[in-house]
Amino acid sequence: MLAALPLAGRAQGSWPDRPVRIIVGFPPGGSLDVMTRLAAEQMGQRLGQPFIVETRTGASGNIGTEALARAAPDGTTIGTVSMHNLLINPHLFKSLPYDPDRDFAWISAMWDLPNVLVVPAQHVPARTLAEFVAWAKARPGGVSYGSSGVGTTIHLSGAYLANRAGLDAQHVSFRGGAQTITAMLGGDIQYAVDNLASYVGVIQEGRMRALAVALPQRWPALPDVPTMAEAGLPGFDVSPWHLWAAPRGTPQAVVERLSAEVRAAWTDPALQQRAIGMGARLTGSTPEGLAARLAKERPIWGEMVKVSGARPE
Q1: How many helices (H) and strands (E) would you count in the chain?
Q2: Same domain, yes or no, for 67 and 123?
Q3: Residue 30 maps to which CATH number?
Q4: How far is the C-alpha of 162 from the C-alpha of 139, rounded, in Å?
Q5: CB count, 10 Å around CB of 230?
């Protein structure tokens, strides 16, 4: 018991008194890594200790998520976790090396990454979601949509759109957004519900047409593009998002302090605009708010996996 007192004292008093590592389960250079480094920079400035990003990639983010779950709960390790690992992977893998309900202490929601319904302007005449649905239903043989892999939020969102709109649609998997764009511009597939950051350039050039964003609010950089709800599909808020968590057992004082610091940092308008320029919307939440969001979205993503036909590995 006495041996535990110094740790508790540090956590509640002078934390952080040494560097904090942030585990990221996806490769460097991607949106998850870039946004984590932005957050690490902010927390280092606010808390006076380095926040060091550590990449642990593989198995659709499961390796990094497992590393976080197995880390010592002493306040020196946190992780950027994709909602994919908590809400989708449990439906895609027969077993996971971590328990989403048991192994983590929730800190804060961090940011949303907008998905957008896009169509190739040269090959699809529709300018609204309603026009696209009517055109797709009248098209002999139906339509095809692209994604960066089976079970990704992009795949599930494209399948969910087809299901909600009653479309005859086939999924085509590519290695990434660039290949999906090439296929659409070539007329091989007719739509995608994909990450906006990959499409900004071709949308601005007029080669792609954005019909709706899969967010509760319009995206600031595309003020004329409606939300899915405004376009006629309410409840279609299915963009990927990320959160911060710590290993279960991390002192509550650490969790509360870090959550408060994130929420305070994210109120900075300049930082919000910087994030939008990087294709993300800063969110922030209390630990309780994060737990509530996960609970609310769990059945939605479970239904989307079922609708998509993706099979457990």
Answers
A1: 13, 11
A2: no
A3: 3.40.190.150
A4: 14
A5: 14
